[in-house]
Amino acid sequence: MQQTRPAGPEAGAPLLALSGVGKRFGNQVTALEGLDMEVRRGEFLSLLGPSGCGKSTALRLIAGLAEPTSGRIDFNGEHPGKAASPHPSVGFVFQEPTLMPWASVFGNVHLPLKLAGTSRREAEPAIMQALELVGLEAFRDAYPRELSGGMKMRVSIARALVTKPRLLLMDEPFAALDEITRFKLNNDLLQVWRQLNCTIVFVTHSVFESVYLSTRILVFRARPGRVAAELAIDPSLERDEAFRTSPEYVALCRQASTALAAAMNAG
Amino acid sequence: MALRITHRLENSPFRWALPVAVLGLVVLGWDLVVRLNDLPPYILPGPLRVLDTLVADRTVLLGSLMVTLRTTLVALVLAAVGGGALALVFASARIVEFSLFPIAIILQVTPLIAIAPLMLIYLSTDTAVLTCAWIVAFFPILSNTTLGLNSVDANLRDLFRLSGAGRLQTLRLLQLPTALPYFLGGLRIAGGLALVGAVVGEIAAGSAGQGSGLAFRIVESGYRLNIPRMFAALLLISLAGILIYAALSLLSWLLLRRWHESALGTGN
User: Fold this and answer.
1) Do A160 and A56 lie in a common domain?
2) Min CA distance, B248 vs chain A (Å)?
3) Is residue A25 a part of any domain in this protein?
4) What is the pLDDT of residues A112-154, one digit of tens each?
5) Is residue A230 part of a domain?
6) Which domain holds residue B76?
7) Which of A83, A96, A100 lies closest to B162 in CB terms?
8) ipTM here
9) Chain A residues within 8 A (CB-CB) of chain B?
10) What is the pLDDT of residues B73-105, one digit of tens each?
11) Scanning every residue of chain A, which has its alpha carbon at the shortest distance from the alpha carbon of B261?
12) Positive or negative CA dihedral for B207, B212, B218, B224?
């Protein structure tokens, strides 16, 4: 199993940066205030924090689904959230699978390409490739109701991957799944990340999940939401079942937990 | 325990045999009451007498059935098109919804039988009957479809935005499929109501028109004390209602069977 990613010429360069970003809802709720963070090309970045700390809001701002009230977001190159281009370079995975119940697995994965004007036949190779990445090529004609929770989430991931995005945004995608399914999907996601050589921003409230997956963790504090701590994890560590029980993993988890506890007490 | 018995019943032939047997017993009881009391047909005809009348008067009655069915179906189609279209307008402009919804509600809550005589003054008999049927069928389709169009999953809406979907694409690929089960539910209610509306309209028109629908036959037969024919016409109205309901249920099942919860069996 390959463990180190082929470092491209641009690996590590900033893909986008948020500076002094604030987001208010109405006059009462301040979700984010003075948020500074950057996303680097090719990294697996986790945003870790308690519920209500604004990490999902930050993700929506990066996606362009909401506008910041203050501060600015700089994209290196074109705005990845701007969908004017025929192949939007951002993929988004929600906490729920968010599939269209009236469409087959194939139809659901086709959606982003269909909206960009690509016909079923033209899109078929890309769709099948995305389904193969998540191991669901045999279920192309199944309907969402016929699938388990984990399989639905795989379809959702395939849909986000079908446009070959440079940036994959994931909002607590595995929070509703059982632990066994979650471990399996964690491994599969890492494999997809290595194969596609894309950048992932992953929102989670699980210390263990963030340490297992990430090359870098940003710990958020709440009220108002901002980055409280940063934790880098050696990308060359092999992420497998042995890693889950290794002393390094435990030490990293303790570090992340301590940072999270400090962030929560600071609020 | 009760659950297990119900479940077993679901799959047994008794599920069909029981209601048929109960219905048969009711008809048998009716027949016995007529025979034992030696009731004359102008008081209460027995079931066989009703069937005889149905066969004997088939030309008149089937002709009337066609008239009533035609009114009902035309009203239903117009209500489906009109209600669906207005719901689309409502969904795209909330201000229109706020302005027009009260009028739709007033039309719905005012008893149709009270409006019908007025409509007969301003409209020709046929148009008035059709309008009666249309008014009652319109509202359930409008309100259900509006509810459906407003029930779009928020995340899916975000996903469409993120993929740069246009307004028309969002309507066609997201809002319409979301609203379809709601629309079909409204259509099923409207089917029964359109028949009621047509019957009410025909009764209100009474002898005023050359109307020859089933309800008109009932009124006419009542004046002539032809009670068996009243029953025969009533039987046909019931059959027409069952037919409409069955046809719309079939349509709903055909459109939703692949994906919607309502069209799925209990599974396993």
Assistant:
1) no
2) 20
3) no
4) 999 988 899 999 999 999 999 888 999 999 999 999 999 999 9
5) yes
6) 53-257
7) A83
8) 0.86
9) 63-65, 81, 83-84, 88, 90, 92, 94, 96, 98, 100-103, 111-112, 114-116, 143-145
10) 999 999 999 999 999 998 888 888 888 888 888
11) A145
12) positive
